[in-house]
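Re-running the complex after MR caught last week's input typo. The corrected sequence lines follow. Everything else is unchanged.
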Amino acid sequence: MPSIAVNTKDVSQDTNNLGSPYDYINLMKPRVMSLVVFTAFVGYYNAVPVLESSINPFLALIGIFAIALGAGASGVLNQWYDKDIDVLMDRTKNRPIPSGKIQPSEALSFGIITSILSIIILGLSINWLAASLLAFTIFFYAVVYTMWLKRQTVQNIVIGGAAGAFPPIIGHICATGSIGLESLILFLIIFLWTPPHFWALALVNKSDYRAANIPMLPIIYGDMATRKNIFIYSLLLMPCGYLPWILNYSGNFYVIVITLLNIEFIRRAISVLKENKDSEKGLFVYSIFYLSILFASICFDKLISNL
Amino acid sequence: MKSNKNDEYLKAFYENRKSKNFAILGIIIFMVVLFFFITILRMDVTA
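Corrected-run output:
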């Protein structure tokens, strides 16, 4: 071992902050990644008629992996930039960077390298249009939403929600090489779903957002304005849920499922509007269920129509 | 006493760095294999 002069304090910081693989996985926001992968897969699978004469299934799997990597990379860059506010919020103070498990510089390098890798892998395995949109999605989430909108405007999650809505379009481009109307409908559904989802969370964690000085709707315009906006966006979301059926991309199974999902969503949005106890948390949890089942039923409907 | 502490830190530092280097090596090998498969699959040997 070479003899080198090392400052004890510096070494102790380095050894404590290298981070375990588990910390790096957490840094990539695995739950968000799984939702991104799922919605991208549905966008991909929804293009099945074209897919039959299209890409190799192994390449498709590599493409899905690249999308997951890209989603994780944008989560890393988000956590790197938000390290100063994450430490102020109870919900986020145990994340790898604020808790000191990973150094910010390590996270930044990791985020940039995984971003570049994900774009290259998607471009080489599928096509460069999909890779370009993945690059734009990472840029939109990490720069437009995280660095700009999140701390500047009350409409942060409305506009920033587009970042989470791009994956089905990427999935569709992977299968067809072009942007299809059905993927734009899925984009619209996620885009309109995002505000009620995040504003319900903002109502629950209002003190967190206030402590971090983030201009969320309940902090700037108050609870009642937020509840009304949740209700309005829920009303806008409902008809969009029917678009895959109206435009004949999905069948009767889907329309039954979406009707049941919509009824419960509106019931919960009304409950939030009436300020019922724990209704905000209930809507937040249900909204995740809503989106998952909606996308799963699109897939299932396609599956049974192909039998 | 201080020297012992320094040695412990150094040992931990080199061990952590070693595991990190192995992790990076693993990732590089994975990428090589991945790009190899992408190339083979993109060649479309069935066509």
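None of the earlier attempt is carried over here. Chain A touches chain B at residues 1, 6, 8, 11-12, 14-15, 18, 21, 56, 58-59, 62, 117, 121, 124-125 (CB under 8 Å). Chain A is about 80% helix and 0% strand.
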